């Protein structure tokens, strides 16, 4: 069991480094989801199924979805601001 925990911790550390090193916001959201999945595996390995289920729902699905929606909204608003002439005159 100790070997499995060590492998899971190594996986979490490796994906965490990839999250930090990723520059594109869209890719960060995808890698963040992978990080959540790796944490889920770690929590299952250390026999914490309730925490694993919470992490799967929130960390692997909900947070990356919210990040992607925020990126989409920001980009849409930026495109809208560029199209409106004289927005500072109002």
UniProtKB/TrEMBL annotation:
Keywords: Cell membrane, Membrane, Transmembrane, Transmembrane helix. The lineage of its organism: Bacteria, Bacillati, Actinomycetota, Actinomycetes, Kitasatosporales. It is found in: Cell membrane. It is a multi-pass membrane protein. One of its GO terms (cellular component) is plasma membrane. This is MrpA C-terminal/MbhD domain-containing protein. The chain crosses the membrane at residues 6-22, 29-46, 52-71. It comes from the Bacteria. InterPro entries: MrpA_C/MbhD (IPR025383). The keyword Cell membrane applies.
